Amino acid sequence: MRGVYPTAARSGLMSCHACHQLSRIPPVLSEGEPICPRCEAHLHLRKPNSISRTWALLIAAYILYIPANVLPVMTVISFGKGEADTILSGVKELIHAGMVPIALLVFFASITVPVLKLLALTYLLLSVQYKSQWRPRERTKLYRMTEVVGRWSMIDIFMISILIALVKLDAVATIEPGPGAISFAAVVILTMFAAMSFDPRLIWDNIEEKS
Amino acid sequence: MFPARSNEMNMSALHSLIACHECDLLHRVQSLHYGERAKCSRCGALLYAKKRDSFEHTIILALASLIFFTLANFFPFMTFELNGRVQVSLLSTGVQEFFERDMWELGILVLCASIIFPALKILGMLYVLGPLEFNRRPWHAALVFRMVEHCRTWAMMDVYLLGVIVAVVKLSDLANLVPGVAIYSFVALIFTLAAADSALDTHMVWEKMEKIS
Ligand SMILES: [Zn+2]
What we know:
heterodimer; A: alpha+beta; Butyryl-CoA Dehydrogenase, subunit A, domain 3; 2 domains; four-stranded antiparallel sheet; 6 strands; B: alpha+beta; three-stranded antiparallel sheet; two-stranded antiparallel sheet; 55% helix; disordered N terminus; binds zinc ion
């Protein structure tokens, strides 16, 4: 069966992002933003300025990715001696202590996931801008994964918050969070917002014919 | 799922159709059996699902979550022992420590992800579903329920728990750690809230809200 896919946009309809109720696209779109009759959310045919917003958030995340990995995320001070830890050195320490499964978990959540997320969103944006026809279903899956997996990178930030709460024995041992932690948290949040502002329907808007 | 044909778009058809939120393809809404899910025929996204006794189950699980949430916040989370010195911490101690060090960005982040958003989610669910169950529409129901949906992403207790595990592993050589009541409640809260999430049928909530208004 060949032909044009019946999408909401091609049928003059738009779907509410919050409650999925369909509404007619008003003839004059400029007169303020239409509102969903069911849930009162603002209606958009596609997420507003999806591509430029996602690029802006993504570029900010790329820039902060450098201090996030270079600056110490925390310093362990015991008996007056301080030892600064970056994201990567924290993983190395876990390996040296023989805790390989936990080290792999932290490596995956704090290093693999942010890099893959940045690359995946960059690829998705470029593929939409160059009107790629290649494997839209797989690209949608890639998008879905970046959306779901992103929050797990916060493990390191939460770990620091627990460490500083527990280890505060003045002279014997204290843990101080470092500036790298703020950059790292910012990278995670920026990529989460970037994934939210990307509209996967743009992938499909370029695909007209059934194959 | 068969895609709908584009030539039958009158006003009453709007309710019998649904557009995929990931690829915009139109589908005719079909009645499902309990436990069935409707997926997009083009991109595979989950469109809607039918759940048994969704309202009752969600309300009960949200009430259980509320109890565990209270326990998790007011009882000791973990006790740290080193050379005879004992340090008791609460769920919110880390947040306080961030604020004391002027790292309010991280303080706010951890506070929101581990306490505020989970609380908003639980209270929001109860606020909307409780009255709807008795056929009343609470004030600003739509706004509150949209907020509940947003909290899905930003409430990160499950991630927080992994952070706890990594921290415990890191300290296990150094000191003696004793888990408190709060940590068990926190784990229970993660399960009840995840179960409430999967029991919740958002389409049914929106439909009911529309009928009552
Ligand atoms: Zn779809």
